[in-house]
Amino acid sequence: MRSDIKHLRRKIIKLAADSGEGHIPSALSVLDILWVLYDRVLKFDPKNPDDPNRDRFILSKGHASLGLYAVLAEKGFFPVKDLESFGKFDSAFGGHPDRNKVPGIETSTGSLGHGLPMAVGAALGLRIQNIGSRVYALIGDGEANEGTIWESALLASHHQLSNLVCVVDYNHSTDRALGLGCMSEKFRAFGWDSTIIDGHDHQAIFGALKRSSNSRPIAVIAETIKGRGCPIMENNAEWHHKSPSMAELESILESLI
């Protein structure tokens, strides 16, 4: 499993270096979560991405698109080779995911605070249609500063959307701007079933994503490291939206864990 993740890290960094585009540390922060989600949890068919009975995943922090693209390609939604166009003019694979261009992308995201509201609507719609699928939304701790996140949390709790899971990528990148404290307690106060995990421990991720409740939405607070697996980028704000030069690339790839 870890070798798979290292392979995906290499792919993400090489794509960003080639294009000069991408938020690498954000993609690495969520990569373990995305891999477990698509490898062991979600119900989907890459050959029929619009199957009405599929589980839905919404990457609210759309700037981590490279992580999602890499996982979707690995799972057969499109050829891995297609990713070589990432960030280039007229490419389907932009810095933020576009549902009209990329198979497997549920919603176009990137404007922070919008993914969870859309996930709430999707979960409510599935329940109205009596479809037993689940909806997963992955938000960043930074966008938890947005009022839409907490308005959506209240709405999901009010409608008892037990088919909804919100994963918070809590890499503490927002701490300098606004401390959020214990996110698990906050979601619990809003009526959610909430748990805290190591966001890079695959068994812990799997267990949390498979949690269920009879009447409450699920919040998974994933403690993560921004830039996980790339020592020079880990918790280093300098790399937030920076791509390695070709001169830096070889040493960075050799350093990956």
Explain this structure:
This protein is α/β, with parallel strands linked by helices and 257 residues long. It has a single domain (2-255), classed as Rossmann fold. 38% of the residues lie in helices and 11% in strands. The chain is built from 8 helices and 5 strands. The protein has helices at 2-19, 24-41, 65-74, 115-128, 147-158, 183-189, 202-209, 246-255; strands at residues 56-59, 135-140, 164-170, 193-198, 218-223. The protein has a 5-stranded parallel beta sheet, with helices on both faces. Strand 2 (135-140), helix 5 and strand 3 (164-170) form a beta-alpha-beta unit. Helix 2 (24-41) runs parallel beside helix 3 and helix 2 packs across helix 7. It is globular, with a radius of gyration of 17 Å.
Q: Please, how many helices?
A: 8
Structural class: alpha/beta
Beta-strand percentage range: 5-15%
* CATH architecture annotation: 3-Layer(aba) Sandwich
Task: Compute the number of strand runs.
Answer: 5
- Trace the largest sheet across and list its strands: 1-2-3-5-4
Radius of gyration: 17 Å
Percent helix: 25-40%
What's the CATH first level?
Answer: Alpha Beta
Write the layout of secondary structure elements.
Layout: H1 2-19, H2 24-41, E1 56-59, H3 65-74, H4 115-128, E2 135-140, H5 147-158, E3 164-170, H6 183-189, E4 193-198, H7 202-209, E5 218-223, H8 246-255
Parallel strand pairs: 1-2, 2-3, 3-5, 4-5
Helix pairs in contact: 1-2, 1-3, 2-3, 2-7, 4-5
